[in-house]
Amino acid sequence: MADTDKWVENLYKALRSGTTIAPLVSVDPSLSIDDAYAISLGTLERRRADGEKVVGKKIGVTSKAVQDMLGVHQPDFGFLTDRMWIDGETINIEKHGLIQPRAEAEIAFILKDSLNGPGVTNEDVLAATESIAPCFEIVDSRIADWKIGIVDTVADNASCGVFALGDARVDPRGLDLPGLHVTVRKNGEPLSEGYGSAVQGSPLAAVAWLANTLGAYGVTLDAGDVILSGSLVPLENARAGDLFEMELAGVGTCAVRFE
Questions:
Q1: CB burial class (10 A; 0-12, 13-18, 19+) of residue 33?
Q2: In this structure, are strands 129-139 and 102-111 parallel, antiparallel, or unpaired?
């Protein structure tokens, strides 16, 4: 039986100290995704004991571009807390405890009703959604050099660092969500572009997958939650001085500056 408590301690210390550890499966090849999720929950409980509050959930590694970049060929899932939510445009790398951050542009869903898998459909997700917003998720890894497999990233809270939402809040009903087009600029220059279809064919499908996957572990997507539906573009390294701007056509903009 895997010693998940040891990994909870190791990842919690890495998170708080801004350091990395070796890939989990390189030390214990017996670790399963269920073990990884138990580690994630254990680390979350340590964070909640510190006063952090869960404000949402995330799905990651959804697009082919990101899967190919990371060598992880199935989605991961994790939790968002209030300390991970950036209020404003500026992200202080040291203050926010980031180690090896990368920026990705996403569609965030803000729920008005809860979703409890299994059996959640795209239509259920749309019905439960109050609004969508443009979002930058800043992914980060407590695993050295981003050498992650699916067990590593699930255990490490889906490699999440912090996130920021643009000001826009738009009712998704009537929008072509798979066809939503995002453009990203870095330091004023065009960087990447993508469509809502990059995440499992539709961001609705990505959120449904998340609800159904977490439902198997007894976790719901709750009313008021912010749900990050996965990157529409390849990840991009972020360093102090970098400015990232995104425009989600027909929805709005979001910008983050690193210092």
A1: middle
A2: antiparallel
Residues 192-219: pLDDT tens digits? 999 999 998 999 999 999 999 889 889 9
Report whether the peptide linkage leading into residue 29 is cis, meaning its omega lies within 30 degrees of zero.
no
Phi, psi of 247 (to 5 degrees): -130, 120
Residue 185 neighbours by CB distance under 10 Å? 15
Of 25-34, 44-53, 131-140, minimum mean pLDDT range: 25-34
Q: What is the DSSP letter of 89?
A: S
Write the CB contacts of 134 (distance below 8 Å, at least 6 apart in sequence): 105, 107, 108, 165, 166, 168, 182, 246, 247, 248, 251, 252, 253, 254
Which residues is 190 bridged to in the sheet?
Answer: 185
Round to whole Å and give the CA distance between 158 and 163.
Answer: 13
Phi and psi of 142, rounded to 5°? -85, 5
Tell me how long the chain is: 259
Could you tell me the residue ranges of all domains in the chain? Answer: 4-258
H/E element, 248: strand 243-248
Reading the block at residue 90, the tokens are 């500026």
What's the pTM?
A: 0.92
Cβ atoms of 134 and 105 closer than 8 Å: yes
Q: Could you tell me the two tokens for 116?
A: 């409890």
Tell whether domain 4-258 is in CATH 3.90.850.10. yes
